[in-house]
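Write out this protein's structure.
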Amino acid sequence: MMLGSDFVALTASKSLSNGTETRSHLPQMAKEWGDILVKANPAMDGAFTPDDDPVEVLNYANEIAECIGVLMAELGAISRATNIEPSAVKAFRNSTLFV
């Protein structure tokens, strides 16, 4: 983590589109979002405080991290199949901060 930025390199974006069909991760994305909502008790009041149950907060944070992984895999699948990637991914990949 650097200055509040969490960058995960997309290895798929290093190789451009191979022109073949790539499986979508949409079902896993939906499942992970549901898991986030199930574990969202610490966020339900709109704020995090030192009084929040640390186990609940950790479980919530873990679900968010799992969802990020699946979302990044989906971006990689899009890139592999179509050569389309978000501008932010291109900017991060070309930034000297992450070399």
